[in-house]
Design brief:
Elements (H helix, E strand, L loop, with lengths): L23 E3 L4 E3 L15 H5 L15 H13 L1
């Protein structure tokens, strides 16, 4: 699954630089994650780095975007091949 940022986000700016796929960017009110670029850090790290640094724990899995580890790895290969 891609990750998402909930409205508990405090705009602390620690997640954005941690994303190896540049999937996180400032939104109108809170940071947002581009699900087309989010691989949950599969291919880069063992765990999602944004979740590791978030001080308010507001980055859960997006239940509307289920993806298997294999799908995330395929997306990682597509993103990094460019």
């Amino acid at each position: 699954m891609a990750l998402m940022i909930t409205d508990e986000c405090i705009n602390c700016d620690v997640c954005e630089p941690e994303c190896p796929n540049d999937a996180i960017s400032p939104g109108e009110e809170i940071y947002i994650i581009d699900p087309g670029l989010c691989t949950e850090c599969v291919g880069h790290f063992d765990e999602p780095q944004c979740q590791q640094v978030c001080p308010v724990d507001c980055i859960p899995l997006d239940p509307e975007r289920p993806e298997t580890k294999e799908q995330l790895l395929k997306k990682y290969h597509l993103i990094t091949a460019a």
